[in-house]
């Protein structure tokens, strides 16, 4: 008996352990699986669903009969889609350029061993904590033709000052640039400031000893060294520009007329208010392609750099 | 380092400093101006707004428009102010932030310490999901929420924000745990600690900073969201941002700019408060969300 007894005990323990081992190796995957499944279904599955809808004739409700590229022909024959693309180009270029120029300028100024940096930095960055709707509301009031900036200038004695961009079809898109730059430039400043702080001081010291003027040091040495920050800033801003929706809605509502239409507002109004779901889907697919073209190469290079 | 050049540079250096400080102060004033105008307008009476100057301080500051914005302003067909919408946002933000942060922490833990073949692909797919324009998922999501009876409910919005916030929370924790020494994990495994025990006892106690960053990032993003709110909710179920936009863009009756501004301040307060209290973590989150890998 004494020789037999341990045997079942051992096998039982072995099988229990192997079960536990198997569970142990599976557990991490079980924990990750729901999130991954959710991403697959609600991101990639939904994207495919949207792509599918863009090849149908769906209007107020989805219709699942494929009709080819009709919705895309329709989309590219809409004057307001061209308006949206043109506005995105104007907004995107100005938004990115001004954010970078202003952000870099403030960052360089802040990098001059400023005494009150701890006070100033939050002032440049706080707009980033605000909702675009709040930003839009504030700027809508600030630029109000009649009661806002225009009136202030009149009160100051500049009687002929006229600022009606918000209701001016040709100028309204620039109010979105102004509010957008106000909101995001502080964040770009923080990115550049972090980049500046990461530069090796020795190189700059060496250039100073050689007698190079400060301006030349920045132009020839420091700014070229910030190349990766420029790249990140452009990607982040381009991505934000394409996605911009709330700001336009709160500031101009896409108007006057469709003067400040962007692809995002176009997609929303065609899908949900004009009952042109197929065209709306086609515009969403266009937006996705735009973002993919910007983000995928960037993510790929970032992840690869990390590996090496 | 000769004496004359030294004195010259000292003089010009002082001028340069003066220019730098002046520029910075002017810029800071410009950045503060919209907030200043928003606040002062909210304390003014309508008569003062019409007759006075946007930049002037309120002559006799009153909180009337604040009370009106909170409890009486008309949004849509109801005139009960923004308080209900404010609570809608709270009820949406708190669970969405908690759930997405917990899931992100577990995902980050698995993706760094329990790697399996294909973990890079999984992470890559989740990461790209952060950047898609949400317009590309709006229509299917509206259908699915409708089918499951979650359209126009707070729980529907919580679900949406968890789903589309997972990528970022996973990214934050993954990058943080990546730097966490594997030796400690291996030692704990030798001692027989299991998956959850290692997470609970070893990783979690040192995850404080990244939890703060993630919570702030998610809180700010979800509180400030407008697109999902306006697409998947309406009327009394709307979150704060949607209600604010409805209030401000309504064209019926007298335009009460002071009430609009007070409502905007209410919408801005929670995120501004977080920013003022924990700005350092806020910036860190923004950076981590911008510079990937």
Automatic annotation (TrEMBL), chain A:
Q: Name one Pfam family in it.
A: BPD_transp_1
PROSITE patterns attached to this UniProt entry: ABC_TM1 (PS50928)
Q: In terms of one coarse class, where is the protein primarily found?
A: membrane
The subcellular localization recorded is: Cell membrane
On whether Ligase is a keyword of this UniProt record, the answer is: no
Question: Which parts pass through the membrane?
Answer: 26-52, 88-111, 123-143, 171-196, 217-242, 277-300
Question: What is the membrane topology listed in the Swiss-Prot or TrEMBL record?
Answer: Multi-pass membrane protein
State the InterPro entries in the record: ABC_transporter_permease, MetI-like, MetI-like_sf
Keyword Cell membrane set for record: yes
ABC transmembrane type-1 domain sequence ranges? 85-300
> What would be one Gene Ontology cellular-component term for the protein?
plasma membrane
| GO BP terms, alphabetized | transmembrane transport
The record's annotation in SUPFAM superfamilies points to:
MetI-like
Keyword annotations of the record? Cell membrane, Membrane, Transmembrane, Transmembrane helix, Transport
What does the similarity note say?
A: Belongs to the binding-protein-dependent transport system permease family.
Official protein name in the record: ABC transporter permease
Q: Organism source for this protein?
A: Pseudorhizobium pelagicum
UniProtKB/TrEMBL annotation, chain B:
Where does the protein principally reside? membrane
Q: Which PANTHER family match?
A: ABC TRANSPORTER PERMEASE PROTEIN, GLUCOSE IMPORT SYSTEM PERMEASE PROTEIN GLCU
Task: Look up the record and report any one GO term of the cellular component aspect.
Answer: plasma membrane
Q: Which residue stretches, if any, does this entry annotate as coiled coil? A: none
Source species: Pseudorhizobium pelagicum
Q: Cross-referenced SUPFAM superfamilies, in alphabetical order?
A: MetI-like
Q: How does it sit in the membrane?
A: Multi-pass membrane protein
Where are the membrane-spanning stretches?
A: 18-39, 92-110, 122-145, 157-177, 198-219, 261-283
Q: Establish whether keyword Membrane is in the entry.
A: yes
Q: Which UniProt keywords apply?
A: Membrane, Transmembrane, Transmembrane helix, Transport
Protein name (database record)? Sugar ABC transporter permease
A GO biological process held by the record? transmembrane transport
């Amino acid at each position: 008996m004494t020789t037999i007894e341990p045997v079942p005990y051992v096998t039982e323990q072995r099988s229990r352990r192997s079960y536990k081992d198997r569970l142990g190796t599976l557990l991490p995957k079980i924990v990750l699986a729901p999130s991954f499944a959710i991403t697959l279904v609600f991101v990639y599955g939904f994207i495919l669903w949207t792509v599918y809808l863009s090849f149908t004739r769906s209007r107020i409700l989805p219709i699942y009969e494929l009709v080819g590229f009709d919705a895309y022909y329709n989309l590219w024959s809409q004057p307001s889609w061209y308006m949206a693309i043109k506005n995105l180009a104007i907004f995107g270029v100005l938004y990115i350029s001004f954010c970078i120029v202003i952000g870099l300028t403030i960052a360089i100024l802040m990098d001059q061993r400023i005494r009150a940096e701890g006070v100033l930095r939050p002032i440049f960055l706080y707009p980033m904590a605000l909702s675009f709707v709040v930003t839009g509301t504030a700027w809508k009031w600030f630029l109000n033709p009649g009661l806002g900036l225009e009136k202030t200038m009149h009160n100051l004695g500049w009687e002929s000052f006229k600022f009606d961009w918000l209701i001016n079809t040709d100028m309204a898109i620039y109010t979105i640039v102004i509010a957008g730059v106000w909101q995001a430039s502080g964040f770009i400043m923080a990115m550049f400031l972090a980049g500046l702080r990461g530069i090796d001081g020795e190189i700059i010291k060496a250039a100073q000893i050689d007698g190079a003027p400060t301006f030349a040091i920045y132009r020839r040495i420091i700014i070229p060294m910030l190349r990766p920050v420029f790249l990140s800033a452009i990607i982040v801003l381009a991505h934000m520009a394409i996605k911009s929706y709330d700001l336009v809605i709160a500031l101009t509502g896409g108007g006057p007329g469709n003067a400040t239409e962007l692809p995002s507002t176009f997609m929303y109004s065609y899908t949900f208010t004009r009952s042109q779901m197929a065209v709306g889907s086609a515009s969403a697919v266009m937006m996705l392609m735009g973002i993919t073209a910007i983000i995928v190469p960037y993510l790929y290079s970032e992840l690869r750099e990390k590996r090496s | 380092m000769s004496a004359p050049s030294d004195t010259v540079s000292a003089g010009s250096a002082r001028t340069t400093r003066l220019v730098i400080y002046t520029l910075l102060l002017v810029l800071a004033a410009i950045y503060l101006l919209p907030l200043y105008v928003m606040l002062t307008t909210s304390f003014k009476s309508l008569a003062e707004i019409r007759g006075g100057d946007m930049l002037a301080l309120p002559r006799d500051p009153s909180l009337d428009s604040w009370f009106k914005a909170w409890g009486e302003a008309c949004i849509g067909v109801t005139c009960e102010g923004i308080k209900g919408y404010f609570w809608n946002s709270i009820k949406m933000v708190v669970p969405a932030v908690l759930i997405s942060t917990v899931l992100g922490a577990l995902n980050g833990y698995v993706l760094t310490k329990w790697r399996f073949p294909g973990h890079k692909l999984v992470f890559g797919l989740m990461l790209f999901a952060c950047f898609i324009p949400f317009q590309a998922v709006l229509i299917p999501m509206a259908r699915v929420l409708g089918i499951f009876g979650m359209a126009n409910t707070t729980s529907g919005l919580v679900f949406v924000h968890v789903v589309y916030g997972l990528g970022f929370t996973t990214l934050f924790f993954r990058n943080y745990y990546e730097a966490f020494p594997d030796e400690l994990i291996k030692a704990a495994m030798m001692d027989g600690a299991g998956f959850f025990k290692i997470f609970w006892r070893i990783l979690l106690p040192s995850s404080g900073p990244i939890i703060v960053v993630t919570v702030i990032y998610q809180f700010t993003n979800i509180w400030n969201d407008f697109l999902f709110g306006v697409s998947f909710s309406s009327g009394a179920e709307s979150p704060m941002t949607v209600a604010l936009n409805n209030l401000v863009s309504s064209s019926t009756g007298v335009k009460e700019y002071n009430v609009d501004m007070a409502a905007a301040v209410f919408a801005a307060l929670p995120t501004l408060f977080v920013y003022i209290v924990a700005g350092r973590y806020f910036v860190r989150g923004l950076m981590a969300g911008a510079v990937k890998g």
